[in-house]
Amino acid sequence: DSSNYKPRDSLIALRETIGQICLDGSAIILSLITTALVIKRIRATFKLYIRTRNFYGFHYNRRLTWTETSAFLNGWDFFSIFTDILTLLGILYKILLDTGADKHMDITAVLLGSAVAINWILGLRFLSFDKGYYILVLTISVALPNILRLLLCIAAIYMGYVFCGWVVFGPYVYKFYSISQTTDTLFALINGDEILDTFMQVESDNKLLFAFSKIYFYSFIMLFIYVVLSVMISLIGDAMIVAQSAVQTGIGYCMIGADVFPELSLGWKTETGNVDQEESTPQASNQNLNKSAKRL
């Protein structure tokens, strides 16, 4: 008799509901705790910034520059808060989805999926405690600004090729029938996918179009594969050298070095106002950094 299974089915459904409530509640509590701890860390960093600013104003009679101020900004903390916000929003949408108040499952999937991805990326900061792994993390942090500048410059050239390909080849080739499709096609060409197939599709009896397609694709491939990728690899290689040097000299764990606070790298001024040149070595700079931390 099917009626004998109804209590069991309702009990299983009740257990699943209680389990989902406990899971959602624990995720919300953990996200709130993480956010509170990160905010507390940001407050402590801000207090340290205030004391450092007052210290430099009193001893060196100058203000902190933007580069020096940015040394107190920790991107990991802001990413952590952003992840917690995505997690909370995703859980709220999931609760609405379970109760039937909202049927947009794609929003929940995007929010929770993004939160999970960023959480795994945030795990990189724990690798900084190991010297070998920290070189890789430091390489990424050093190379990222230059790579972003390079991508910003290349984006203008790339969009020029995108609009040119859409206007010229759009009426004839399926891969260029829209701006989105053209962007995907050119990105695939940069990665070496379907190069010959694209050349074959663009072939035409029109001599002008045929000649233009050769110039278009040859120049695009040579520029983005041979030049842009080589420059990007060079930037990463230079950043790797800088990261290895920083870790070997012992200043890798404190990026507030000669580039940010030059007074600390040159040694403390004596009472007569002169700079002690004997303390300009990396070891002396590290001692000065430790002294400054204690004074602050």
The topology string of helices and strands comes to HHHHHHHHHH
Mean pLDDT: 78
Radius of gyration: 28 Å
* Low-confidence region ranges: 253-282, 292-296
Q: Main traits of this protein?
A:
flat, 296 residues, mainly alpha
Secondary-structure topology with pairs:
Blueprint: H1 6-59, H2 66-70, H3 75-99, H4 105-122, H5 131-169, H6 179-190, H7 195-202, H8 207-248, H9 262-266, H10 282-295
How would you characterize the overall build of this protein?
The chain has 296 residues and is mostly helical. It has helices at residues 6-59, 66-70, 75-99, 105-122, 131-169, 179-190, 195-202, 207-248, 262-266, 282-295. The protein has 10 helices and no strands. The relative contact order is 0.07. Residues 253-282 and 292-296 have low confidence and may be disordered.
